[in-house]
Amino acid sequence: MLIGIYCTLIFIxxxxxxxxxxxxxxxxxxxxxxxxxxxxxxxxxxDRDYNFMLLLQMAEIGLVLLLFTDAxxxxxxxxxxxxxxxxxxxxxxxxxxxxxxxxAALGVFPDLTVWEAGxxxxxxxxxxxxxxxxxxxSPHVPMRIRQALNVEAGLNDGLSVPFMLFFIALxxxxxxxxxxxxxxxxxxxxxxxxxxxxxIGLAGGLLLGLAHRKQWMAEPLETLGVIALPxxxxxxxxxxxxxxxxxxxxxxxAVQVGFREAGRHSVEFAEExxxxxxxxxxxxxxxxxxxxxxxxxAASIIYAALSLTVVRMLPVWLAxxxxxxxxxxxxFMGWFGPRGLASIVLGLVYLEREMRNPGEATIRVAVMATVxxxxxxxxxxxxxxxxxxxxxxxxxxxxxxxxxxx
Length: 406
Description:
This protein is an all-alpha fold.
């Protein structure tokens, strides 16, 4: 029944998608709300005993494809041309976001351990490129600012994975009393994941590049060849107990060595079939969030608000200090750091481990509340925020950093 409801929704959305793009109703808002409405309107869905496996598997595949796509289209020349704004956001900004998120968690949720607070901070550190698409595609936002936010969202999900896995390993080592667990976990998840990703990316890229130069491949099938690589990362990672996310991210970077066109083909797939998968995740997330609505507490709502404001905006302000950007730009970049698909997947990955720590339920509710608030708050404020920001920066002199060419 769920599949039927979702397919019908996809069809209806496709009919009105052009009109909806001119409103504040974004696709994630629509599909999340539809998932919640389905639970209310269809009694059979309320009585079913859902586990997270279906959502987890779909979300994992979606994030693997997203990480590979983001990495494969990453161009270091872009980082240089926009004068290190993304580097500031991905280094100082991201590290401070994780630390501040963990500190806020300890303050709001006194039942959490230090490592559990770190897990929550890492899960909610990455921003969502999909939720921020309206920002990075708007011609009213300076290109330099758009590119910085786009590169940040494209890479911070992959960079947050090692931090989350590290905190999980520390939490597991502490609960089991076996310090050797940490070393084995890091070797398997990070080490094997890196080897698998780099190996698949290099080998796949070299073979794809050779076949492309020799004109052995039919052009429509080049995309399938590229997309097969992150799927191979999933299989290889499961075989050796490694992180599929680290493998996919590094494979996306490595594939460019042999096949420079990989980014274009992966983006083509992500914009079509990948969107279908990602919207399914938001639909199922809306359904599960509606089921968990009674578990939302004042503390989880407070933390969600802190995560989207202070925890995000203060690190951005510190990371951009000295760049000469106006206060309006810093506020704009700080606010538009939405949490979405990456946080959903990382949260599910943590829950899948079934560590049964006392703070597990708290982390689950906090992640759901934060993502849910972000979907609606950032979606509804995007168009008004762009218009107000555009009016403000129109008054800036031509020599302002926002107006510099890239």
